[in-house]
Design goal:
- This protein has about 375 residues and is α/β, with parallel strands linked by helices.
- It has two domains: about 160 residues, 3-Layer(aba) Sandwich (Rossmann fold), CATH 3.40.50; about 200 residues, Dehydroquinate synthase-like, alpha domain (Up-down Bundle), CATH 1.20.1090.
- It has a six-stranded parallel β-sheet, sandwiched between helices. The protein has a two-stranded antiparallel ribbon with strand order 6-7.
- Strand 2, helix 2 and strand 3 form a beta-alpha-beta unit.
- The protein is globular.
- It starts with 10 loop residues before the first strand and ends in a 10-residue tail after the last helix.
């Protein structure tokens, strides 16, 4: 009960048809750059009609892990059009690109902002996955050397709109993987080295919410995401992103960034595969009350519950299926140890390599220590 707690003051609008409020939220901006993939052209067209085509700048290219060359291409559009705001519609890739632009992560971009007294564009985020990026000050950009991440107040979205109806066309398998991404945020927030009772409580609530959503998704026969399940998972993702903002992440996120940045593995699926194994790695070093809380929401052997949630929803549970080679694991272990995040358990290379080998094969270690 001796802790420090920080949050941020984004304006959050949650509900079905919440995206209909976008023209109202964008009315005060002179020009808006819209980062949204082709599946959201109808939404961009509606904004052009409501605000006028001269005020909307379209950019449809997005890519996982935010490659630097894409940031440079989008930065050229920013320098040319000078938007007052960036509207990012989509998952972590779209929102991550908006963050990179607000950060000024391209040659000449920061200088462009300050010409004629201009400020960096503000971000309005409309998430259509469960990445949680819309709630955080965390950015990530991938170069030939791997993925670089950091934190900056510049990249915090000012307005976040959660509309579960926008997720109705999301393939159920992709939705399940993205939900496991949210679950990774929530689980790691429970045992964060700088954790606090406030974030811990909301993270535990989020774990229960996402787990219920995943179980309901596994029980329906649908190729896309029913809106009532999208609503449940979106709420859990909101809590996950909020938790991610309020405490530091540890080995789970370091491992996922390494696996994704080095080997091009899908970010959400990497989280899903790694999560049970990382929790097993951390377990002996977690406070007794934290272990009891995790058992309360996930059952007597939490790693198995997490792996079953993923498997039952059709999400891969081994790194092999993500294209990672067994010979890559030694390099991954070295990168995880390099510039490590604060972590409850010491980063021992032998244990890390064992953890990665188990994740590669999808084999959980013994359950005994969880009794």
């Amino acid at each position: 009960m001796d802790f420090r707690f920080e949050t941020h003051s984004a304006s959050v609008h949650f509900g079905r048809e919440a995206a209909a409020l976008l023209p109202k939220h964008l009315a005060s901006y002179g020009r808006v750059m819209v980062i949204a993939g082709p599946r959201y052209r109808h939404l961009t067209a509606q904004l052009c009609e409501a605000l006028g085509p001269d005020r909307i700048v379209r950019f449809e290219k997005v890519a996982q892990h935010v490659p630097q060359e894409l940031v440079d291409e989008a930065a050229g559009v920013v320098r040319q059009t000078r938007p007052d705001a960036i509207l990012a519609v989509g998952g972590g890739s779209a929102i991550g690109l908006a963050k990179a632009l607000a950060l000024g992560a391209s040659p000449g971009l920061k200088e462009c902002y300050f010409e004629d007294g201009l400020a960096a564009p503000e971000i309005i985020a409309v998430p259509s996955t469960f990445s949680g990026s819309e709630q955080t000050d965390i950015w990530g950009i991938t170069t030939v050397e791997g993925k670089k991440t950091g934190k900056s107040e510049l990249v915090l979205p000012r307005v976040v709109i959660y509309d579960p109806e926008l997720l109705s066309t999301l393939p159920s398998e992709y939705a399940a993987a993205s939900a496991m991404n949210a679950m990774a945020h929530l689980v790691e927030a429970v045992y964060a080295p700088d954790g606090n009772p406030v974030t811990r409580f909301q993270a535990l609530q989020g774990i229960e919410t996402v787990a219920e959503g995943l179980r309901r998704l596994s029980a329906v026969d649908s190729d896309t995401l029913p809106v009532e399940i999208a609503e449940k998972l979106l709420l859990g993702a909101f809590l996950g992103g909020k938790s991610l903002r309020e405490v530091s992440m540890a080995l789970q996120h370091k491992s996922a960034h390494v696996i994704g940045g080095l080997f091009g593995a899908d970010h959400a699926k990497a989280h899903a595969v790694l999560l049970p194994h990382v929790l097993h790695y951390q377990w002996p070093h977690l406070d007794r009350d934290i272990r009891a809380d995790l058992k309360q929401v996930l059952g007597p052997y939490p790693p198995q519950t997490l792996q079953e949630l993923a498997a039952n929803a059709g999400v891969p549970t081994d790194l092999q299926r993500l294209g990672v080679k067994k010979t890559d694991l030694s390099t991954a272990a070295d990168r995880i140890q390099a510039n490590p995040y604060p972590n409850p358990a010491p980063l021992d290379r032998f244990r890390l390599l064992t953890m990665l080998e188990n994740a590669w094969s999808g084999t959980l270690q013994a359950e005994q220590q969880f009794q």
